[in-house]
Amino acid sequence: xxxxxxxxxxxxxxxxxLLADLRHNLRTxxxxxxxxxxxxxxxxxxxxxxxxxxxxxxxAAIESAVLAMGEQIERLGHDLFPDAAADPRRDEEGAS
Length: 96
Prior knowledge:
The chain has 96 residues and is an all-alpha fold. Helices cover 73% and strands 0% of the residues.
C-alpha cells in the first residue's frame, strides 16, 4: 500500500506552522506602513505646502513598494502552500 500523502509528521506540521507565522508576521508591518502612508497622504493633501507634490509622490512610492512586497509574500505563500488546506492559518486570516 502506498504511503498516505495526507499523513504528515509532527515536524512537517511545525514547519508549516512556522512558515505560516512568518508569512503573517511579514504582512503585519506592511499593513502598518501602508496605513501610515495613507494617513500622511491625506494630511499632505489638506495642507498647503510647496513640497506637497514631492511628498505625495514619495508617499505613492512607499505605498507602491508595500503593495509589491505584499504581493511577493502572497506568491511565497502560494508557493509554500499550493493547496489552501495545507496552510493551517489560511482560514483564520481570511486570506484568499
